[in-house]
């Protein structure tokens, strides 16, 4: 006797029994159109092979025919009724699929091969829906059996859904002509804004001159040893983008609570001592500065998610939703090593590799820059001489270095040695895929947890702030 559903009164609820009794999503006519077109024209076959695999076909006969075609295609054999029929005969499947008569019928039922890509995408969408139903069924079964930890079940579910999503978003070749037109338009726009920032401005003049801002679809790694100011630096960028340029910023804070980030933003904006605020020793006369800062930041399009131990799947889902609901042009992940990767990753290096690849894929998909903070290894502190970070200092550096479009290191000499002018720091560009490497001098104001521009005329002069 089927389990009674407590929400049975809701007409929108579909029970598991109803799902089992229903015919899975499929479009036999679209499958026929694809196979018939492939038998008609070799170009149509090439297009179909770019989009489909054998599992995409609902009808098993069509899977066998597609497999035979794929085998011939792989060996540069022509595809027609005779060659495909012979290959099916060799496999012992010709009679099972309906013989040469059915192959001939496939060709006859398709008047033109011109729409093969359109029909192939219909077949793919139906196949993904069937896979989605299968994944949902597996997840339901695992949840009922309760044989695994909840976190493990959720992790496996996320991986399966993510795999389907990646398959759907896969793109093929594009003819260079429209790409060139789009590129030329971009060059023209650069020329119109000659010398100005083309991406999301960081607010740091020297850095923006080297990078022209944070570019769309780029993964930017901001790295440094603990207490170097990684979070402060990225919060300053978030503030500059949101307040000065009205660019929406989404922040995933896996380490600090949202009110802690807000406190830092307020102290930086108001120029009040953050330690005095936290210990309750801020002079009453400085409260007016905080009030003004609240008024200024309250209207800024900054969105903070402080949920701990997020998976890459959760970050991508939340980012997609925020972009759909708000106009967001920058995401910050603080920090990469706290993001949860797949539990079945063979090593920490592989796990980090999968996380960095996914963040890069997110930047490309949403066409926004994504900043990910990253820790550096202890090698920086153990080696003698120059302690400026280099790419090999990145923890699990191979994958991060490869996936990143830009790598920025925060270097504050005063952390290691006595210096003449305290606060003068460097933002080192260790990698820039589409631009020069180099270094930008900035000032770190420890009391305000704030990075700011240095004046151009003297490196030891009072600062010129980015806001």
What does this structure look like?
The chain is elongated. α2 crosses α7, α8 packs antiparallel against α9 (150-169) and α16 runs parallel beside α17 (348-366). 33% of the residues are buried. Residues 1-15 and 457-463 have low confidence and may be disordered. The protein is an alpha/beta fold. The protein folds into two domains: 13-173, DNAb Helicase, Chain A (Orthogonal Bundle); 197-464, P-loop containing nucleotide triphosphate hydrolases (Rossmann fold), CATH 3.40.50. The chain has a ten-stranded mixed beta sheet with strand order 3-2-4-5-1-6-7-8-9-10, with helices on both faces. The chain has helices at residues 16-21, 28-40, 42-51, 60-74, 81-90, 94-97, 99-108, 116-145, 150-169, 176-192, 205-211, 230-245, 258-270, 274-278, 287-298, 312-325, 348-366, 379-382, 397-403, and strands at 219-224, 248-253, 302-305, 328-334, 370-375, 406-411, 424-432, 438-445, 450-454, 463-464. The protein has 19 helices and ten strands.
What would you say about this model in short?
The chain is α/β, with parallel strands linked by helices.
